Here is the input.
Amino acid sequence: MPQQDSTVELLTGKDSVGKKSKIPARLDLLQSATGLILSFFIIFHIVFESSILFGKAAMYRLTKIFEGEPFIEGGEPLIISALAFGIFVIFIFHALLAMRKFPSSYKEYQRYRTQSKMLKHSDTNLWFIQITTGFVMMFLGSIHLYTMMTQPENIGPYASSDRIYSDIAWPMYLILLISVVLHTGVGVYRLIIKWGWFDGSNPRANRIRSKKIIQAVVVVYLVLGLLSLGTYMKIGYDHQEEYGNRYSEVHK
Amino acid sequence: MKIVYTDALIVGGGLAGLRSAIATREKGLDTIVISMVPVKRSHSAAAQGGMQASLGNAVMGEGDNEDVHFADTVKGSDWGCDQNVARMFVTTAPKAIRELAAWGVPWNRIGKGPREVIINGEKETIVEKDEAHGLINARDFGGTKKWRTCYTSDATGHTMLYAVANEALRRNVEIHDKKEAISIIHENGICGGVVARDLISGELIAYIAKGTMIATGGYGRIYKQSTNAIICKGVGVAIALETGIVQLGNMEAVQFHPTPIVPSGILLTEGCRGDGGVLRDKDGYRFMPDYEPEKKELASRDVVSRRMIEHIRKGKGVKSPYGDHLWLDISILGREHIEKNLHDVQDISKTFNGIDPADEGEKGWMPVLPMQHYSMGGIRVKPTGESTTMKGLFCSGEAACWDLHGFNRLGGNSVSEAVVAGMIVGEYFASYCKETHLTTNTFTIQKFLEVQKAYLQEILSYDGGKNIFDIKDRMRIIMQEKVGVFRNGKDLSDAVDELEDLLKMVKEITVTDKALCINPELNEAYRVTKMLKLALCVSKGALERTESRGAHFREDYTKRDDENWLNRTITTWTDPNDTMPTLSYEEIDISKMEMPPAFRGYGKKGAIMSNPLSEIREEEITKIKETLGKVDRFTTQEALLDFDLPKEYKRKNERMGVGYD
Amino acid sequence: MIDQENQEVSNEEEFRKIEITVFRYNPQNSNTKPEYQTYTLEETPGMTLYIALIKIWSTMDHNISFDFVCRAGICGSCSMVVNGKPRLACKTRTSEFEDGKITLLPLPTFKHIKDLSVDTGNWMNAMSKKVESWIHAKEETDITAIEKPVEPDVAQAVFELDRCIECGICLAACSTKIMKEDFVGAVGLNRTARFAIDPHDERSDEDFYELIGDDNGVFGCMSLMGCEDHCPKDLPLQTKIAYMRRKMVKM
Ligand SMILES: Cc1cc2nc3c(=O)[nH]c(=O)nc-3n(C[C@H](O)[C@H](O)[C@H](O)COP(=O)(O)OP(=O)(O)OC[C@H]3O[C@@H](n4cnc5c(N)ncnc54)[C@H](O)[C@@H]3O)c2cc1C
Ligand code: HEM
Ligand code: HEM
Ligand code: SF4
Ligand code: F3S
Ligand code: FES
Here is the structure.
């Protein structure tokens, strides 16, 4: 059998020169990196997607921009498909990495829950939010991304609203919204602590500050998301008679 | 019942025990350390103030060397120490601290240039030399000519213990914790090991070794009030006593500290008074100036302790559910000063008493009382650390009467002793183990195991209805009240009688739970019995010693009596059925002294009944010096007192500015 | 015979009653089941859990097991779970609990010995060996020569991290450790940081990676901060774990 590093590691826990595997370091970094990329994505996603608050036209324009209209006549929804696919890959990758940290058996889960309930410690409880929201997203996020990949053309003031209202996607979006905002908030807070980004001269005070700022941002995002979701529902409600019709700028 | 064989067995995992274990491992000996508690929890961890070693780096320590340290130690001991041992100690202490530095103890380091310090309550600026930058710093401690006490903030013992324990782990010293030695195995006057009890399973284990070392620390818990950890019960010393062969030395020499906080007994550093804090009584009156107009609160430890007790006896103590106490007031120093310089004191006072000492007026006063602090006495050993009467049994650290401290030890000299003895005695011990073969036969081992098993069963079978906790409390109160800071013939003889009664009374207890395994009440039953024996040694020794020397103060014999009492009290327990120790005395030979007895330089002048031999030796010394002519200090020293040291410990120590001179 | 309780009743003041509930279990005695036992006692001024438990032991229940050594917050023996939080019992005052009800449990994650007593010593020794918690230097030191100079600030920084008392509270407060048996915990990671900044230690980052570069080491930590928020010595665990992580991930 050829000398393979992975075989050596399997048997000895060290690589072929007798050093400890560097993989755990890579994985840890990747977990944070993917989390960070996704976080940036979500931060912008929710802002873009709340363009509906500025009216159908605004949302429509933005969608078109994403479809690459400035360069391609009429826009190309496949761009969105591709983007969604890219995000999906990162998303799955992040989820796989994060799953390493999940309790690996019911016994572990139970030990963790019992201890954390006893401890009543806020950051430990935040982690519970993180794994539950992550778990939820794994399903709902996948459905959503699948939709975006397969029906990129069905994005727009009316198409989206119909999906949300008439196709009854709103409960999913509501749960997804809450999950993603909380998960991102907690995740970013954890990144700051984990890598000591804003330690400054008084790390303890700055930790509290980071936490406060993030709490505020989370609230803003939740409000923003809920308002947009409401707006989509409103539009969808008004539009139910014309279900399936697409928004067009010429309408104006 | 289990038998474990090894080359070197060390009972006790404090600084002394662990440093000795390193010495034996360096010689390739299999070494087991057994300890009642995880070794890093040993009481050495509690030492706050520092470790003495004459480095002379700091500007206030300039000119310091072995000779100065030696003189301080001898005076401190009130000439009770063994000057040979003191020489061994001061020569090795600088090496010990440098070894510890290399092992990572983060000693506080000197920063060059000016800094502000408080000397006698006054702010002063001192300037550290450029070349001293980064070298080990030192602070001031009572009874020393130079600033010699090296430190890591308020956690000196902790950092030292961790460094030594980690080095021991590195060398694969086997550590068996939660094991308590309860008897020494010996045959034909040779020590074969110990019988230990597993404090979890209750199993009895015979640890058999070529050599055995006891390093079990002090026994302060025989007093009601003590700064010692609650495991400082002296079981290790007591089992040596119980052999009937091993001698204990100077058991009556017990040090008291003036300002532990009440009721917990946690030490508040001397710095409180050093910086200008004052003592007050129940009326808020500052009483020390009445007693000691000159030095007031800053008189030496034993003097302040005595005055405080005297004042309480006049009914001026503050009543509390924990007994009478006095107040320590540092609020007058101001919040800023306290928060900056006495932070730990504030922390202790806040956590343990809910008092913020920076609060102005009565609210910020901290309850204090003199309490037992250090045991100068212990297993009497030769300068090699081997018992004077039992081969193969070594002892080091606070458990030993190696006799570095005589009747009073200097602050900072005991963690230093623990490590230095670990090096020196550890080395002699290792050589002994190397040259010896295991001889103890299994029959003897079985016999000792059986005796202990039967003894524990006997305790469980007692059925007199009495309670071991009551006996213990009574003992501790007797010691506190009658064998305390002030001693007198009547109280002492009452104490001896009462303690003897208590010892007999142990047979009338009942232990509720009859389990042989983990059973904290059973533990207490045999420990208290051993403690009572030690308490008897202390009080009997104090009763017989009709003089005042160092920490031993007799109201009825207030003078130091060099003519009749320049000796060491030796205690043995000749028969297991005895209820009283047997005393004898070991002369301290003035004619071999490098520094014959004189006035200590502090305390009361003229309180000495001197020995004519002192003067003779003094003249002899002058003559020797004259004949030698102009030679270096090492040659003079050797001519006056020649001492041996193992390994390379006798080499000269380098110092800043003077090199190896 | 002197009666402790009487001695204290003789004091005129009235003190409130407190209730201390203790987890009782002796794994060695197959007849016993884990149970909770409640003791009611009078709270004296300045009472700590050490004083309270000693009182319970010497006057109410001679068979209760717990571990105290220094009773001054220095030795790390007395960690236990006090109303849910792992803390040093000797540094916990009973007056902190307004309703006067205190529940005591042994420290989780360590081997249970009996009642409130657990085995920390063997775990800590193994941890110390695992992270090679000692100075690694190539050359031997001449102990008669003047010591190697160290910047005062650096010595102070090492001291800050050397203050750990191996109390195990950071482990009991860490959900990662609760789930993953072999995690070295904040205590182990802090220890490596301590040696990493000590100028006497010549180990490279690569050497440290060999010790803690895996999911039982620094990459196992999920930044839950239970350690940081409960450490009785206030060690800067948050920043030191991050420091080691940054170092290790560069490998
Ligand atoms: C509050 C306080 C502050 C102090 N501050 C200073 C200071 O600043 N400077 C200074 O120089 N000195 C100081 N001292 C004194 C100094 O700390 C001790 O004298 C010294 O640490 C003793 O070390 P040791 O190794 O002899 O014993 P210890 O450290 O007490 O170790 C004893 C060991 O023996 C074990 N043991 C005991 N009995 C048994 C048994 N029967 N079987 C098995 N194992 C057993 C214990 O588990 C422990 O491991 C202070 C003391 C106190 C109380
Ligand atoms: C848009 C989606 C997501 C975003 C923005 C996001 C973001 C983040 C971030 C920033 C972190 C911190 C990374 C770190 O600690 O190194 C994180 C951690 C985590 N994520 Fe996500 N994540 C997303 C999706 C998911 C999904 C689908 C899962 C489901 C499995 C998941 C599970 C986790 C878990 C369990 C952690 C904690 C890991 C740990 O504590 O070490 N995440 N996430
Ligand atoms: C490139 C990939 C993505 C695209 C193109 C995209 C697009 C959209 C669009 C167009 C909407 C509006 C509703 C609709 O049309 O159905 C929407 C809503 C939403 N998306 Fe995405 N999305 C992407 C990835 C994600 C991911 C990874 C998540 C989180 C896991 C996410 C979470 C949400 C949520 C929560 C809403 C509802 C927001 C609200 O109601 O305010 N999206 N997304
Ligand atoms: S890091 Fe803190 S909590 Fe953990 S063992 Fe050390 S002192 Fe205890
Ligand atoms: S609580 Fe545990 S997960 Fe990390 S930050 Fe502390 S070690
Ligand atoms: S008993 Fe030592 S820390 Fe509590």
User: Anything to note?
Assistant: DSSP finds 18 helices and 23 strands in chain B.
